[in-house]
Write a structure and sequence with these properties.
Layout: H1 2-9, E1 68-70, E2 77-79, E3 81-86, H2 88-101, H3 109-112, E4 117-122, E5 129-133
Antiparallel strand pairs: 1-2, 3-4, 4-5
This protein binds zinc ion.
The site of zinc ion has 9 residues, from loops.
Length: 136
């Protein structure tokens, strides 16, 4: 009896007509096996992460200090301008010092140490971002 009342009161229950599914598409590659996965050609940024395999970056040799290079953007020989920025390692060291010392007295130390920061190199001529050196 409840079902009849519901039919009177409300809309019919939602019913999706089962459209006949078309036949599954044939295999894209037919008899030929799919080609091997093409190497990804996505542009790789020079940001060095904390991954252990971070040595496959560009051929630009940059260090924690201003480095003389040829700018890949303007092709001029420049000495990079370095901006030091705190990275995750800085935060980890800061947290570690905070735990070891029992207070936050040492928390700021890593933020004052260049060796604990990433060095972002910029071209002083065209101001292009060249790369990041992360201390290891
Ligand atoms: Zn440049």
């Amino acid at each position: 009896m409840d079902a009849t009342m519901e039919n009177k009161m409300g809309l019919p229950p939602p019913y999706e007509p089962s459209a006949p599914n078309p036949a599954p598409p044939p295999s894209y590659f037919g008899d030929n096996p799919p080609p091997p996965a093409a190497p990804t050609t996505q542009p790789r940024t020079v940001v060095v992460t904390s991954a252990p395999t971070s040595s496959d970056t560009s051929d630009i040799k940059i260090g924690p200090r201003p480095t003389g290079i040829t700018c890949p953007n303007c092709n001029r020989s420049v000495v990079t301008r370095v901006h030091y920025a705190a990275n995750n390692r800085t935060h980890i060291i800061s947290a570690g010092l905070c735990i070891l010392t029992g207070c936050c007295c040492g928390c700021f130390v890593p933020y004052c140490m260049r060796s604990c920061k990433s060095a972002n190199h910029f071209c002083p001529k065209c101001r292009a971002f060249i790369g990041t050196y992360a201390p290891s």
